[in-house]
Design brief:
Oligomer: single chain
InterPro entries: CHP02058, Tubulin/FtsZ-like_C
Pfam families: Lin0512_fam (PF09585)
Number of strands: 5
Shape: elongated
Keywords: GTP-binding, Nucleotide-binding
GO molecular function: GTP binding
CATH class: Alpha Beta
Number of domains: 1
CATH superfamily: Tubulin/FtsZ, C-terminal domain
Length: about 130
């Protein structure tokens, strides 16, 4: 128990958000990977080391959630690879956007852009 009577255990450390798009080919896995990388790139978790004394970043537990069109098409294993540390639990839900873009037959048979949104919550055990 922490000073003041607060229970110890699994606690949220940070919540971060990101977006990603696949401009050609409607590849929702690519869009989701980009959203994850975007979220990861917005944070430096120095408090884990400087304040909490964490020595192994793989001690983190990360709950990741992606909203995108066609969630059933997402390769979850590939998306999880975008998160460099920790034990990752990924949930993919309907969301994001599709918008018409530029049709380039050399790249894809469609002109649709798919956009994914990601949220990462980092948990630590105190």
């Amino acid at each position: 128990m922490l000073e003041g009577g607060e229970d110890v255990g699994r606690k949220r450390f940070i919540i971060e958000f990101g977006t990603g798009a696949d401009l050609h080919g409607e590849d929702v896995t690519k869009a989701a990977q980009k959203a994850m990388k975007d979220a990861v790139s917005h944070s430096c978790l120095c408090g884990l080391v400087d304040i909490l004394g964490m020595t192994d970043p793989n001690e983190m537990e990360i709950e990741a959630k992606v909203g995108c069109p066609y969630p059933e098409r997402v390769n979850k294993e590939e998306v999880i690879k975008a998160i460099p540390f920790g034990t990752v639990h990924l949930e993919v839900v309907p969301g994001g956007l599709t918008v018409p873009g530029l049709k380039l037959p050399l790249l894809a048979e469609t002109d649709m852009i798919v956009i994914a949104v990601a949220a990462l919550t980092v948990y630590i055990d105190l």
